[in-house]
């Protein structure tokens, strides 16, 4: 996978380093040369440039880039300008950082694909979400093992945990499942409700809209998601 990260502050640099260490090609961009120099040995490629300059930005390999992350946080105005610029250039997947609710609303109006809240979400979790397609959330226990929430593959719909043979095939342990259901209020408003089902039972039946919480080696999780 190829990533482009704009803003090498604490969050942006951490995500860039983790994605690079996991074998991805990452271009890290910042307008401060000292930050570019600081991370040039830790990130695949680093560039010092003004990301608000459309002519310069349009020269980047955007068509070959899978995900663009706008990690600028200290200057909301610049964040919005840069986000809008990349959106107009039609990148495949655009993720931007929000620092408050108003900022988030502006980014939603621009039409970003996802919004990051670094104060609430770690760089480690975002790196795993980006690398492993289908991951909803994750908790890294060590460099090699994690607990992750993953969407139930369609091929498991209607089957029990025992029938999918995830332990035998992938050496992964299902800890629990989370059901997503919709409920209507007395005024007719529909809201989504999540229900953690408790410790997983081999006879628990899976639904394609559910979430599996699994534990295992990162390489096994990656293989499971690739097969799914």
From TrEMBL:
What does the entry give for GO biological process?
A: potassium ion transport
Question: Which SUPFAM superfamilies does the entry link to?
Answer: NAD(P)-binding Rossmann-fold domains, TrkA C-terminal domain-like
Q: What Gene3D superfamilies does UniProt report for this protein, alphabetically?
A: NAD(P)-binding Rossmann-like Domain (3.40.50.720), Regulator of K+ conductance, C-terminal domain (3.30.70.1450)
Coiled-coil region: none
Pfam families per the UniProt record, alphabetical: TrkA_N
**InterPro entries associated with the record:** NAD(P)-bd_dom_sf, RCK_C_sf, RCK_N, Trk_Ktr_HKT_K-transport
In this protein, which residues make up the domain named RCK N-terminal?
Answer: 1-116
The name this protein goes by in its record: Trk system potassium uptake protein TrkA
What's the source species for this entry?
A: Leeuwenhoekiella marinoflava
């Amino acid at each position: 996978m190829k990533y482009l990260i704009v803003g090498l502050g604490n969050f942006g640099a951490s995500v860039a380093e983790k994605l690079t260490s996991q074998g991805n090609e990452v271009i890290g961009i910042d307008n401060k040369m000292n930050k570019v120099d600081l991370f040039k040995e830790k990130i695949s490629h680093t560039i010092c440039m003004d990301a608000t300059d459309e002519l310069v930005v349009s020269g980047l390999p955007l068509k070959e880039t899978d995900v663009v992350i706008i990690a600028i946080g200290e200057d909301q105005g610049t964040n919005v300008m840069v986000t809008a610029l990349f959106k107009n250039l039609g990148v495949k997947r655009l993720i931007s950082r929000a620092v408050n609710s108003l900022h988030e609303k502006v980014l939603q109006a621009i039409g970003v694909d996802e919004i990051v809240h670094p104060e609430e979400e770690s760089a480690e979790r975002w790196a795993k979400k980006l690398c492993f397609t289908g991951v909803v959330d994750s908790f890294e226990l060590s460099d090699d093992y994690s607990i992750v929430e993953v969407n139930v593959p369609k091929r498991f719909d209607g089957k029990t945990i025992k029938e999918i043979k995830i332990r035998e095939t992938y050496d992964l342990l299902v800890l629990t499942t989370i059901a997503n259901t919709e409920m209507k209020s007395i005024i007719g408003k529909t809201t989504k409700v999540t229900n953690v089902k408790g410790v997983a039972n081999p006879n628990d039946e899976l639904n394609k809209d559910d979430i599996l919480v699994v534990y295992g080696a990162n390489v096994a999780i990656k293989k499971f998601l690739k097969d799914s």
